[in-house]
């Protein structure tokens, strides 16, 4: 009898869908999805708890605060035609919280305004709803932020964790992954600003985080669309633009047909912007009218007491008195570009996933420290990539950065009467880093000088809190304590930026010492 020849089946090529399926199975087997759900529920409860407290401008007529600004935008967008949203008319007084964010914020306000109009029409009625602060109205407003967080930021965190830890063949240690999820979701600064002070940073940051995850999974077209949406929700997302541009451009240069790859990404960007801006593209006046609302240069180079270069050095150099707004705009632009340029060059020459995350951190810090018109709340932008890098950065550095960021916003949150939730989240932030996984990351790079520095930093921070809450400043210097806090935080943030830039450039050594990456398909 003739022996039958055995047909040897070739293994199926490993496709992206197979990889994603294997990763998702691994996540379920290791219980990481369960951890994500539990941490999400806990972080949601924290958000709800903070939302029970006061908010920006509560009971403070005539203009109130950010809570009233967000409500007013819902009032305007649900009662006026889209062509009038950004322009001064008899029904839209731009001096009273006129829209000054890109169109996607206006569309979001319109959508939320429809919900408020359905459940409580008086809360968005034209003119008569100004300063509307009924209990039911406040509940509805708080619900809009909570739902935005759940629908955009939380899924983006899951997407990032799925891609970031899924790249590890073993899926990563379960406790480390859970700790990383907690660090991102239980960001005390984001919770206090969105659910206390009252803003919708969770939307723009969630879209940015989705774009970051898309870059890490090499879905560059999706990344472009998501990041453009983030830019069109809040123009401050431009803090991340140098990192996205340099990494994607550097990646395109390493493909088989660089011009075609750049063209595809360019078309994705133009297409997304065209769709979002479509109602204002019918005339030049309409387009530039909206654009002029997004750059409030008349407010000056800094606002309030922010821990950046211009505000910190203004004690010695009176920038606003010595220089015109135009000259300060130019100088701040040059300083910002020079600060983020090294990070961009590194990613163009040697693009990598880790380098991209460091690039996001370094470019956002460049804008925070040196750009024009920065607010205390802008610290949220560098904090996002800092939490994404929590597994890479020394734990003690991450913890001190978070505590420093909290301290820099303390005067603002005091004015909002959010001291109790602030202190609770300040303590929870320390406890998170003292958890077993957090302690392991802290011990990795701990030295005697670092221990001394950390103890001094935390003690000084506590002293500043006590002074601010218990002692009245001199009448001649009413903002003395704000200035002290600002000048305490600025050197730390600057030193951290220098350190992370050095860390990013050290990645180039790994790139050049190992085998160079082959052209991407």
UniProtKB/TrEMBL annotation:
Transmembrane portions of the chain: 143-165, 177-193, 200-217, 262-280, 330-349, 355-372, 419-438, 450-471, 477-499
Pfam families: Alg6_Alg8
E.C. code: 2.4.1.-
Keywords: Endoplasmic reticulum, Glycosyltransferase, Membrane, Transferase, Transmembrane, Transmembrane helix
Compartment annotation: Endoplasmic reticulum membrane
InterPro entries with a match to the protein in the record: Glyco_trans_ALG6/ALG8
Similarity comment text for this entry: Belongs to the ALG6/ALG8 glucosyltransferase family.
Name of the protein described by the UniProt record: Alpha-1,3-glucosyltransferase
